[in-house]
Amino acid sequence: MTETASDGGSTNLDGMSTERAAELVNDDERDLGERRETLAIVARDGTVRRAAVDDALANASKVVTTAETRVELAAEKLDGARETASPVADLDLVSTRLGDFDARLDAVEDRSDALGEAVQEVLAMRAEGDLYEVARRIRRLTTAATEVQRAADDLQFELGSFEEWLTDPDRRAAELDGDVDAVAESIEELDELSEALGGDGSGPESEAGRTWAAARVRHRVASLLIADLRAELAALRRWAEREGAPAPSGIEPQIDEVQGRHGAVGDRLASQADPEWVARFGDRLTALDEALAAMEPPVAWGEVEAVVAEHRPEAE
Fold first, then answer.
1. Which of 64, 90, 132, 135 is the most exposed place for a label (fewest CB within 10 A)?
2. Is 132 within 8 Å of 27 (Cβ atoms)?
3. Chain segment 82-107, per-residue pLDDT in tens
4. Residue ranges of the chain whose pLDDT lies below 50
5. Is residue 303 part of a domain?
């Protein structure tokens, strides 16, 4: 990424209009408008100026500082949540959530650290570096810092909700009830799909075969969801007993109903299986079953998504 070559050297953009400079810049990945917007970062009154770099870098540094502060606040928020959770941190239901938050904080801290390194790289270029490259890096730095800030803010918000969940048994029960409803809705959609699907023997290349295989995948994942719901309900009951509080009521019958509908959909999908569909997709579906069978509640859904992506029949 350099300024346009001219007589063996590079074109000096300093003092050139942003319009003309954008036309000369060698950046095939961005159109003229994007190049013009990038150069405007190091321009004054429509003219590219090296003297404008310091102001542009100062503005970007403010965005970086704000992002770094938000990351620090997120770390403090996690410390507070961990302290709140300490009496029940032995429950998998709680420790798994804390582990997820730890991993997210580690990731956003790594991204925050990279911002400081990027600032130093631009500082080293500001006096003599390629002006377009300087502007491009400042723009990329500002965008990255904004994304880090957003991620840190989201983490803080979710940690706040987590602390409320930790201290309010009614909220825990309500959230589980909402999760049951969401799984029920998903199985209803799967039920409608299976009713519309006909095992008509139309062959391995048919759209019906691919739809059937995808439905089998969704059905298998739904069984994990149901197991996760039951495990969470059991954990909430132990938690309530420990605190001497009423256990969640009315949720188990809902899960039982969802389980029954899930089983009926599974039976229908099994009866609809065309032998050629089974021949085409069976190995992948079996591999998926085996991989998911090794996962136990509380389920790490990021791992489930990775396993499904690896074994999804449509990807063959």
1. 90
2. yes
3. 999 999 999 999 999 999 999 999 99
4. 1-9, 199-204, 315-316
5. yes
